[in-house]
Amino acid sequence: MTSSSENYYNPFGAVLLALIIFFLPVTFLYIILGITESLLDRDLLNQNPVNININGLETTLYPIKDNLLYLLSIPIQIWLMIVFLNRRNISLTQSLGLYKFNKKAFVSSFVIWFIVAALSYLYGYLLDIEIPEDFVNLTKAAPPLLIAIVFIIGAPIVEEVLFRGFLFSNLKHSVLGVNGSIILTTIFWTSIHVQYDFSLLISLFFLGLLLGYIRHKYNSVYLAIVIHAIHNLLATINILFFI
Q1: Contact between residue 195 and residue 52 where contact means Cβ atoms under 8 Å apart
Q2: What global pTM score does this model have?
Q3: CA-derived radius of gyration, the chain
Q4: What is the 3-state secondary structure (H, E, C) of the chain?
Q5: Positive or negative: CA dihedral 141, 145, 151, 157
Q6: Percentage of the chain lying above the pLDDT 70 cut
Q7: Cα–Cα distance between 179 and 172 in angstroms, integer?
Q8: Distance between CA atoms of residues 227 and 235, nearest Å
Q9: pLDDT band at 39, cuts 50/70/90?
Q10: Who has the most CB within 10 Å: 24, 55, 131, 190?
């Protein structure tokens, strides 16, 4: 399958489709769950509810149900990306960056990530920034295995393929170019993490820039997934065992 810049979606269309791909499957599954919930073990799905403050809005979340639905939505999200790319006759491999990476690329990316992570830690330490208690409680309220699968496997895969794969490849063929696409993609990726305080979103934004750079530099979304997974692995261990 071949593709050209004319095949790609324009920036507005690409952003709109990325948001649809990210939010629609979960919304759809919640609707299906609402219809069939009487047939399921509601006590199991809704146990350990957590009240969390998101930008001043008090919300009750259900960690087990929410994380399970997130996992179930991932195949639908991947399928939607394939559908939208095929509609424009866009190469999945080229668009999503489905290329292998070598050891040198991994080591270089890991070193850069380590520096960024160390600076983020120093930034948090000097400004006395902590992970919000609400988010810690929300994470610990679900079974550790479920959290590990979602945070370390599910989230890195779907977020990198969608934002650093689908969205980035569409935007970079526009007037935004590579640098503008990395920045805009990072803004949208950061904005979906509304559970964090603004001070933490700053560190997350720089992580997103790094992941975008890695994706472009080595033309491999797989490498971005691995670095994202390593970051989430350490964050998950920290939350579950040291906070």
Answers
A1: yes
A2: 0.93
A3: 18
A4: CCCCCCCCCCHHHHHHHHHHHHHHHHHHHHHHHHHHHHHCCHHHHCCCCEEEEECCEEEEECHHHHHHHHHHHHHHHHHHHHHHHHHCCCCHHHHHCCCCCCHHHHHHHHHHHHHHHHHHHHHHHHCCCCCCHHHHHHHHCCCHHHHHHHHHHHHHHHHHHHHHHHHHHHHCCCCCHHHHHHHHHHHHHHHCCCCCCHHHHHHHHHHHHHHHHHHHHHCCHHHHHHHHHHHHHHHHHHHHHHC
A5: negative
A6: 94
A7: 8
A8: 12
A9: low
A10: 190
Contact 14, 70 (CB under 8 A): no
Tokens of 145: 């295995």
d(CA 125, CA 176): 35
Which residues sit opposite 51 in a β-bridge? 60
User: Looking at this protein, which amino acid is placed at residue 102?
Assistant: N
Measured CA to CA, the distance from residue 190 to residue 187 in angstroms comes to 5
Q: State both tokens at 183.
A: 């920045």
Q: Work out the mean pLDDT of the chain and round it to a whole number.
A: 91
Residues 73 and 155 sit within 8 Å (Cβ to Cβ): no
Cβ neighbours, 10 Å, residue 191: 12
Cβ atoms of residues 49 and 68 within 8 Å: no
Task: Take residue 179 and report the two structure tokens written for it.
Answer: 């640098």
